[in-house]
Write a structure and sequence with these properties.
mainly alpha; elongated; membrane
Length: 101
């Protein structure tokens, strides 16, 4: 008889990545607003945003692969995917504010 172990998904890097990129992008956005829309902040912010998109996409594909291959832990992995994807509307809002100013 096969025993099924229902251990939680132990990966913490995806949460750290989502929280880290959110925090850094928020700080850069606040610096941009506080500095009276100084374009020098954008010199740092745009490369960071592009790098964050690439790294978050890599993590998304990694989590999607785990979601497919680990059906017992889909609830935990799905939560991490949603947390990672929650950065998209926030970053888009920051982008709209910067482009309108």
């Amino acid at each position: 008889m096969k025993t099924i172990h229902n251990k939680p998904f132990q990966e913490k890097q995806s949460i750290e990545l989502a929280v880290g990129t959110f925090t850094i992008s928020t700080i850069l956005f606040m610096l941009y607003i506080i500095s009276n829309e100084n374009p020098n902040i954008l010199v740092i912010a745009w490369p960071f945003a592009l790098a964050a998109i690439v790294v978050n996409l890599i993590m998304f594909f990694h989590l999607a692969e785990k979601f497919i291959h680990l059906p017992q832990q889909r609830k935990d992995i799905g939560f991490k995917i949603l947390l990672l994807l929650s950065n998209i509307p926030i970053t888009f809002l920051y982008y709209l504010v910067v482009m309108r100013s």
